[in-house]
User: Fold this.
Amino acid sequence: MNIRKISQICAAALMVGGMANAQEFGGEKADPVMASPFSFAESQKKAERAKEVAAQESGSKVIGGKVAEDGAWPWQVALVVGGYPLQPDIQFCGGSMVLDRWVLTAAHCIHMADDNGNYRDIPAERFNVVVGTNHLVEGKGDVVPVEAVFRHPGYVGTEFDNDIALIKLARAPRAPYRTIKVPDAEFGDYLEQPGVTTFVTGWGLIEGAQNPDRLREVQIQMMERDMCNGLLLEARAEEAVKGFGYAAQVFGMNQATAEQAWSEFVQHVPAPLTPNMICSGTYEGGKTSCQGDSGGPLVVPLNDGSFIQAGVVSWGLSAKDSKTCAENAIFSAYTRTANYVGWLNDTIARNN
Assistant:
């Protein structure tokens, strides 16, 4: 954590004329810097069909990518709202085939808040999984019903950690597909080195908030978790200090005292990316994932021409309107699959 940089943010905000006044503080809320995970509820809002589900703005799209070739990324699947013809608007998350009847995805894709704000798993009969196509139109691929969902027990709907889940299909897909492997802890450490090439794929929103019917891909790279945490904390600090400055003014704190209080406060702020997450993107920005890509795979090419799944699309930075993704964001966060090999194996063995 770059405490000096975050403290400088506070000092700049607390300079004479820099404090928020009461009128400013009581006005519109500052736009949130962080996007929430893209939930099943939001997907149904996007489809404008399941009105009984509470919509939640959030997000993880392939920004700056290109259309994938037919047959590329054959482990990629789409999670779609059940009961409607296949089209882009009913797709809400991605996933990957890890065994013939098992799909790996993000926990936030199958766990959502109901109308009363209580988080629960999505009933299996409410959605399907599309396998064997990169083109989300009627008549393409195989729309497979779901038998059961298995959310990691450590995942909490209001947080990002342990954002991983398994979906058991009701039957094996009848369209061509391939499965993809996940690394163990030792290999995961190797794959996570900064600069390692990665690819992320999905049908998430593209520039202009459009829902593409064709799968998109983008090449990015692993980035240092500490660097990503520092950038996130600086972004959050720029928003948080607005309210802090007003509070300091109300309580009559001078600038030196306020800066000291702020410095002590940020010492206790948890790092946004935990050891269960990896960071991938580009230093120039403009290439990342967004709404609808959540749950999809982050893969690493190996020397033999194959791929291995290092991450699951989890969350990233939102744009200033808080409804789309920041197209200049340099990275997104992904669940580190290597940390969950034991849970994946145990869950499949108990429920096969």
Summary: The two ends are 43 Å apart (CA to CA).
